[in-house]
Amino acid sequence: MQKKFIPVLTGLILALVVGAYWYFNYSNDNASIATGQKVSFTVKKGMTTADIANMLHKLKLVNTPESFRMAAKIKGLDSSLQAGEYEIISGMSNKDIVEILSKGEVRYEVFTVPEAFTIDKIAAKLERESLGNANAFKDAAKKYTPYPYMETANTSVIYKAEGFAYPSTYYLVKGTSEKDVLTMMVREFNARLTTKIRDEIKNSKMSIKDVVNVAAMVEQEARVRSEMPLIAGVFLKRLKIGMPIQSDTTIQYLFSEQKKEISIEDTKIDSPYNTYKYAGLPPGPIANPSMEAIEAVLHPVDTEFLYFVAGKDGHHIFSKTYQEHLENIKKTSEEE
After folding, report:
1. C-alpha span between 312 and 333 (Å, rounded)
2. Crossing angle for the helix pair 291-298 and 208-221, nearest 10 degrees?
3. Which residues, 6+ apart, have CB-to-CB distance to 186 below 8 Å?
4. Among 110, 119, 164, 191, which Cα is nearest to 289's?
5. What is the residue extent of each domain of the chain?
6. How crowded is residue 160: how many other Cβ atoms within 10 Å of its Cβ?
């Protein structure tokens, strides 16, 4: 009886340890202040970890003083928190706050990259928000391939980092270089590739790069998130039967400014990114997709549809034949 109880007890202890670690390191979502707000505070010389924890709790940046103190203790940094004037973002984890205070990183800027943004758009946003130089970011993205799955021998690829700069919110300290920003984004993408997702990609018989390539088009096409798996199904079906993907998004990628509509002449542009002119996938991803888009490619709807067109409400109308597709285009045109 005692022997049978030991595994159960061990399991409970492990669950408690994991739960406690998560709580002390990651849980500040109930600190009663809207996530994403900048909050300034001063850590004075001589303040103890307990003093700092109490102050952060009063500022509603941490759920409890105890959770912050434990996080500092677990990381071995409870005696390394530095004095200074800080500005951090509400909603950050205990672990992140502890690291900031231990490094004396007194000022953070928030940089949010929306889903489906391209390297060009990320670069422009970085410069627009006075966080870096657009050209420097783009230059870094041209050949940056820290992970083997990013490598390509295709000389037509514009940015080797395209598709792998994960769209998320980043906290930048003063002096962060454009290369450092890109490194943070690419590392975040790699971290999102869990063992489960990597196994699913392997089972799909596609490479990581190809999955991201399709996901980028899905991300750009989908106006309604729930349609992602069906759009992915259409693209994958076209690839399977050797039919050109014919996605306007791959042509839009060639323009510095997004066009309202792609013309017949645009579809004749001689570029390997033109999926009207060339069958198969473009040389590389045309945007940086979310994990939701990647999941859609890994779990697509098995469909007979080969065509779709966006309606006025953002939903797509799907069809099996080209004739039906033309009729749907006419209907959507009449709606406008």
Report:
1. 9
2. 110
3. 144, 146, 147, 150, 161, 164, 165, 166
4. 164
5. 19-106, 110-192, 204-335
6. 18
CA 105 from centre of chain: 24
Using one digit for the tens of pLDDT, what is the confidence trace for 65-106? 999 999 999 889 989 999 988 888 888 889 889 989 998 877
**Token pair in block for residue 103:** 């490094």
Are the beta carbons of 115 and 290 closer than 8 angstroms? yes
What's the half-sphere exposure (Cβ side, CA atoms, 13 Å) at 157? Answer: 24
pLDDT in tens, 244-285: 999 999 999 999 888 888 999 999 999 999 999 999 999 999
Q: Say which DSSP state 107 is in.
A: B
From the candidate CATH numbers 2.60.120.10, 2.80.10.50, 3.60.90.10, 3.30.1490.480, the one assigned to the domain spanning 19-106: 3.30.1490.480
Question: Residue holding tokens 């395209």?
Answer: 162
Name the token pair of 98.
């502890």
| Distance in angstroms (rounded) separating the CA atoms of residues 227 and 232 | 9
Residue 30, classified by CB atoms within 10 Å of its CB into exposed (0-12), middle (13-18) or buried (19+), is exposed
- Residue 152's nearest CA partner among 144, 220, 201 is 144
